[in-house]
Design a protein that fits this description.
Number of strands of chain A: 5
Radius of gyration of chain A: 16 Å
CATH superfamily of the largest domain in chain B: CO dehydrogenase flavoprotein, C-terminal domain
Distance between the termini of chain A: 56 Å
Oligomer: heterodimer
Structural class of chain B: alpha+beta
CATH architecture of the largest domain in chain B: 2-Layer Sandwich
CATH architecture of the largest domain in chain A: Roll
Strand content of chain B: 15-25%
Helix content of chain B: 25-40%
Strand content of chain A: 15-25%
Helix content of chain A: 25-40%
Structural class of chain A: alpha+beta
Strand order of the largest sheet of chain B: 4-5-10-6-7
CATH class of the largest domain in chain B: Alpha Beta
Number of strands of chain B: 14
CATH class of the largest domain in chain A: Alpha Beta
Strand order of the largest sheet of chain A: 2-1-5-3-4
Largest sheet of chain B: 5 strands, antiparallel
Largest sheet of chain A: 5 strands, mixed
CATH topology of the largest domain in chain A: Ubiquitin-like (UB roll)
Number of helices of chain A: 5
Number of helices of chain B: 12
Distance between the termini of chain B: 50 Å
């Protein structure tokens, strides 16, 4: 018999405690229990990057993480980036650069960009391409997405300079 | 397709893992990173009733540098292998191979031990560990043992592990002076690629200033049911002075040793030819690194097609 187990997660800064099935994935918990549908399910096998979230600051495909494996971890989804009505500079840059078409890959792309810029605030174009190579987009052809990441890097540098 | 249901166990010690494996037998599968296991379950290739998660067993996730060499815990993430300063300094080919697996997302989950235990003929970490003389530390119900990596693989997806065995760590002997390493992988895209052919090389030059090869190993992936070491390269190069024509001859010799298949990724003949090309490049790069020269081919050049231009 399979029974539920208790899991504790910190999701976008909030402590959450849930009863989950052992076979439930992190993406199931985010989307269907917490209603955080910004995280998208594309391939379900870790190939497309649409379900990417940050777990303890590291980019992971939430379709390949069991909810129980995430016990005690800190999760950031696309919903956790903005502060109130103010978009995160990476989100703003995606809008300004026209890097969003159908939008399905966008949450994963933005979180992949965040993981990159958190580690490397001055990436080269080649480094941006490498960092986003696990995220597929079927609309834009990537050029505008790379431009948005470059613009976001410049924005973030500027806002750091102001502090 | 319905969701496959299983029970989840999260032991914190190796003893508990072995105990669970003993109790649950073939109904249990070990979960390291999950990037293969959860996909196999999703595709219905396996249907375990129990999942034993290893990530909470501390000794599986450590990297230790000892005088006797480096010990890498089986559950160390490939992203850490890629970036660890000790591995990058002592075994750059292992970092380079790790950096070419999947994507950042995948490398943040996937583990070095998982790559070995999946035992794919295309497992990217396997050739690099094979040329490094890796020993695998295995613990099971009947005790512990060390297995040489070339004796670990029994066929595609098959290893020397028994039902109650856990791969604990990979032990690497310290590199000898004047040793150079290389790893090249041929894929289509760069990201999320399963190798068409992969080659790792180790070349150790004799202590004097000459170009005499004292030790050489070349391992090839995706060209046989398991990753294989080339005996012909060893025979042709050991004790010889390195020249371009000798490297050419050694690279050519692997074409008769490999046993590739044709599949949707490439034909057997293409794999055979590319095995020789990548062997040549790997030997040249390993040689240049052994003599301390900076000149070396990068993976980028391989993926951008210079592999087709001779050189």
């Amino acid at each position: 018999m399979v029974g539920t187990k208790r899991v504790r997660l910190r999701v976008n800064g909030d402590e959450r405690e849930l009863e989950v099935q052992p076979y439930e994935r992190l993406i199931d918990v985010l989307r269907y229990r917490l209603g955080l549908t910004g995280t998208k399910e594309g391939c379900s096998t870790g190939d497309c990057g649409a379900c990417s979230v940050l777990m303890d600051g590291k980019l992971v495909p939430s379709c390949l993480v069991l909810a129980l494996s995430a016990d005690g971890r800190d999760i950031v989804t696309i919903e956790g980036l903005s502060s109130g009505d103010e978009l995160h500079p990476i989100q703003q840059a995606f809008i300004e650069c026209g890097a969003v078409q159908c939008g399905f890959c966008t949450p994963g792309m933005i979180l992949a960009a965040k993981a990159l810029l958190d580690e490397n605030p001055n990436p080269t174009l080649e480094e941006i391409k490498q960092a986003l190579s696990g995220n597929l987009c079927r609309c834009t052809g990537y050029v505008k997405i790379f431009e948005a990441v470059q613009a976001a890097a410049a924005k973030l540098k500027l806002s750091c300079g102001e502090l | 397709m319905g969701v496959h249901r299983f029970e989840h166990h999260a032991p914190t010690t190796l003893e508990e893992v072995v105990k669970l494996l003993t109790e649950l037998g073939t109904e249990a599968k070990l979960l390291a990173g999950g990037t293969d296991l959860l996909v196999f379950i999703r595709h219905g290739r396996i249907a375990p009733k129990h999942i034993i998660e290893l990530s909470r067993v501390g000794e599986l996730t450590r990297i230790c540098e000892l005088e006797s060499g480096l010990i890498i815990g089986a559950c160390v993430k490939l992203r850490e292998i890629e970036r660890n300063s000790v591995i990058r300094r002592l075994y750059p080919h292992i970092s380079e191979a790790a950096s070419q697996v999947g994507s950042v997302q995948i490398r943040n989950l996937a583990t070095i031990g998982g790559n070995l235990c999946t035992a794919s003929p295309a497992g990217d970490m396997i050739p690099t560990l094979m040329v490094s003389g890796a020993l695998l530390h295995i613990v099971g119900a009947s005790g512990e043992r060390m297995v040489r990596i070339e004796e670990f693989f029994k066929g595609p997806g098959e290893t020397a592990l028994c039902a109650t065995d856990v791969l604990v760590s990979i032990q690497l002997p310290p590199p000898k002076p004047r040793t150079g390493w290389a790893f090249f992988k041929l894929g289509v895209r760069g990201a999320m690629d399963i190798s068409i052919v992969s080659v790792a090389a180790k070349l150790t030059l004799s202590e004097s200033t000459s170009d005499i090869v004292s030790e050489v190993k070349v391992a090839l992936g995706s060209v046989a049911p398991v990753v294989m070491l080339s005996h012909s390269v060893e025979k042709l190069l050991t004790g010889k002075r390195i020249t371009d024509s000798l490297i050419e001859e050694a690279a050519h010799s692997v074409m008769n040793e490999v046993k590739p298949i044709s599949d949707h990724r490439a034909s057997a003949q293409y794999r055979r030819l590319m095995a020789a090309v990548l062997t040549k490049r790997a030997l040249k790069t390993a040689f240049h690194r052994a003599v301390g020269e900076q000149q070396q081919l990068t993976q980028l050049e391989v993926n951008q097609g210079s592999v087709f231009n001779g050189g």
